[in-house]
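pipeline/complex-builder :: batch 7 item 3
reading input block
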Amino acid sequence: MNEQKQSLADLQHIKQMMERSSRFISLSGLSGIAAGICALAGAWWAADYVNGRKANLIDADIATTTAGSYGYSLIFNTWLFWIAAATFGAALISAFFFTWLKSKKQGVPLWGNTARRLLINVSIPLLTGGIFLLHLLQHGTFGLVAPGCLIFYGLALVNASKYTLNEIRYLGYCQLLLGLIALRFNGYGLCFWAAGFGVLHIIYGVYMWWKYERN
Amino acid sequence: MINPIEHLNKLFDSRVRLGIMSALMVNEQVSYNDLKELLNITDGNLASHLKALEESGMLKVQKGFVGRKTNTTYSVTKAGEKAFKAHINALEQMISNTR
């Protein structure tokens, strides 16, 4: 019946307007896949330095003068720090690119109220985690860095899920769980890190792409 | 059986008004510019719908400033919330009744 169709269309319109005005819906599954690939590449690149097959220090001379303390100058003098920074940068840029592409396709502006709210709510746990992890590095507690990354990232995602597509909550739960398990497996930090930031991102990305963007 | 069409609110008989109310239901307040962007309509069109909803007590207007620019925000009233929920229920009933 025509009236029935009209009612259904109205309800769908209401739902769409509610979501568009309160959630950032342009987050692309391809962003997840791209970030996951960056993470796997970064982990592969870092593996030799973590295992000690390659020297982690960039300039050995500087290191001897600061021996015994783990100041920022020493942290910045390690390959691993710069690999991590490059990985993070590459993941961020590629994730941004695909989300920008999707927002263009949907015809919704990328930057707005919903994007701002999402960014703020992701940043709070993430920045807190970043500062905390730098502090751990300063104290030489390297074993807790990978689980720490996973746990803080998981918290950030759970917190962010209220402001974007809800499925990201489950990605958050998985990262949290993986981070907590990683606490019990000393020496396998990089494996867990690669599983969380690489494999889980790719699985999530493929699922989201399949569900929302296939056509 | 009661005809569910009678419960449909004539006031919400427009896509623009449905959109405005939907946005206000899930946000504490929404600015004029955000509404315009969301609904993708002209100023005159949006203003007339907002006025109609305001005059029937569905929404409240707050006028403020961001720097020197006026920043008008809208939020739903208790009556508006009730009326819109009733409208959604009526829409749902329309679907289940005719099935």
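note: The interface with chain A takes residues 5, 15, 18-19, 21-23, 25-27, 30-31, 34, 37-39, 88, 91-92, 94-95, 98-99 of chain B (CB under 8 Å).
queue -> next item
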